[in-house]
Design brief:
Two copies of one chain form a homodimer. The first copy, chain A, is an alpha+beta fold and 312 residues long. Chain A has two domains: 165 residues, Ribosomal Protein S5, domain 2, CATH 3.30.230.10; 129 residues, GHMP kinase, C-terminal domain (Alpha-Beta Plaits, 2-Layer Sandwich). Chain A is 36% helix and 29% strand. In chain A, the strands form two sheets. In chain A, strands 1, 2, 3, 4, 5, 6 and 12 form a seven-stranded mixed sheet that branches. The model of chain A has no long low-confidence stretch (mean pLDDT 95).
Chain lengths: 312, 312
């Protein structure tokens, strides 16, 4: 075992824009996720040795890749000169609404922190991961990065100043994800949103946000389900995902507590209270997509509670 | 002691529209509140014998008073023929944004329930109290009635169907109230609100609502304070209360965690973490109003945890 010369880290996929918690609520899952291997070298360079599973779409230039930027910024900030070689294993589709770039960013900063033994807090690591998102998305969003790094459900209460709030996450909560083989541009998803919304609609949304948060903190799955209603983003974006409503309906019919668009899509997530239900829900969602001629992958796991981990 | 022939009940004042929780969040206080005395009679009539402290403004006609309507509806619903005489002690100003009519409605239904020994749940009593609000306001609002009846902080998650959610309320949280001698018509307060709001403003509001709820459930007073920002109703309504911003500022300067308009005003509330601070905050708010020539009363108490109570 290489011990202090190399490290392997897993960082989870994340669901942002959790129904009524549009732009503020996200959570992490145990599957899928990215893996990174970080190795010390005798040079003073940061090198991306290889990226697996991206179909050649991601750049190997460390100054423009979401996995390496956080590593470079971290070393700069703490004044450390150390050559490093990065190997990245993408275990999830890009641009799918599953927080792929966030997982790579978090994997990068978490790996370098643990490899060098600085053991910074998640609050200290977060800004570096956000720098990775800045490269990937053109904006330093926290809505995937924060749940990826913190684990569990996370609230981005405010950006100015940035405040991330951990939300107690029920045990025994499972997530089914389906990634349909259609493309939704983040830009189109953004443009589909209304600029203004009726006050009454906004009140409905924040009543549900409050209900969802109370439900999570009380492990009240019924309240969580009743609160998972998005009257703002979902009606605006559903049309970008063919078959969205029938897929959602199939998830609820198969026992989901609630379901919605993951991030800005096209993936769809559903929550449930058992692994058995979660598997059935994933099958039902894939079948609903198949019925209208759309292929998909599915992922099933418990909601992630710990964020990134060093692999054995 | 009259025992089963009469009962005396206290029902608390309430703060609705708790900053960012506009239209969905409210809480009860231990002071002020209404008191009712309900006595059995040998007739089959419901009579309001007297109302004290209202300056003669409230009707004694039991079919049109917010205290008696819930009593009448309760007896009807459970098929009980029992003459009752009501005496109401208003210990708070009317139309002040402190939930005066809600306190009377809740006092009425709670008193008849306990006097007759039916001991219904708060969920069962709520609709009767809302009937009282219907008479008083022309709409069956729950935002004062629910916290008054349940105690503590309460979320009105949804009206259709009605769902009230209890929010764990920190111990040792105090409320200072100031009621300035100016009038704000509920209609004007309603008309001051924007019909539509920018999506970004709505997201800011629901991020804060979620933060406030998490703060309450974790007894995290810092988070509560940072989340108590209303970017929707307060900017629209502040102009209806002369000196609002200087009064709010004086509360924060005196140590308040946060402050805002109570209900639709003109009363202003401030939360704090000690009785000593709460008293200083009340004095500071009254002084700020006095500085611009406006008289006021103040009330200081711990946040109420139990709702209405039978008095010894």
């Amino acid at each position: 075992m290489a011990g202090s010369d190399s490290i392997r880290v897993f960082a989870p996929a994340t669901v942002a824009n959790v129904t009524c918690g549009f732009d503020v609520l996200g959570f992490a899952v145990n599957n899928p996720g990215d893996e990174i291997v970080l190795r010390k070298t005798n040079t003073d360079k940061i090198v991306i040795k290889a990226i697996h599973g991206d179909g050649g779409r991601l750049t190997l230039d460390p100054n423009f890749n979401t996995v390496s930027i956080p590593v470079i910024k971290y070393l700069e900030k703490y004044g450390i000169k150390q050559g490093l070689e990065i190997e990245l294993f993408k275990h999830m589709p890009l641009g799918s609404g599953l927080g792929s770039s966030a997982a790579s960013s978090v994997a990068g900063v978490f790996a370098v922190d643990k490899l060098l033994g600085l053991n910074k807090t998640v609050e200290e690591m977060l800004p570096f991961a956000m720098e990775g998102e800045l490269i990937a998305c053109g904006a330093a969003h926290a809505d995937n990065v924060a749940p990826c790094l913190y684990g569990g459900f996370v609230l981005v209460r405010s950006y100015n100043p940035l405040e991330i709030v951990r939300i107690n996450t029920p045990k025994g909560m499972y997530c089914s994800l389906v990634h349909p083989h259609v493309e939704v541009q983040t830009k189109d998803a953004r443009n589909a949103l209304p600029k203004e919304i009726p006050l009454g609609t906004a009140v409905t949304q924040w009543g549900n946000v409050a209900g969802l948060v109370v439900g999570l903190m009380k492990s009240d799955f019924g309240l969580i389900g009743r609160s998972m209603q998005d009257v703002v983003a979902e009606p605006a974006r559903a049309g970008l995902i063919p078959g969205f409503y029938s897929v959602k309906e199939s998830a609820l019919h198969a026992g989901a507590i609630g379901a919605g668009i993951s991030g800005s899509g096209p993936s769809i997530f559903a929550l449930s209270d058992s692994l058995d239900k979660a598997n059935k829900i994933a099958e039902a969602m894939a079948a609903a997509f198949k019925k209208i001629g759309i292929g998909s992958e599915t992922y099933v796991s418990e909601v992630n509670h710990q964020g990134p981990v060093v692999m054995g």
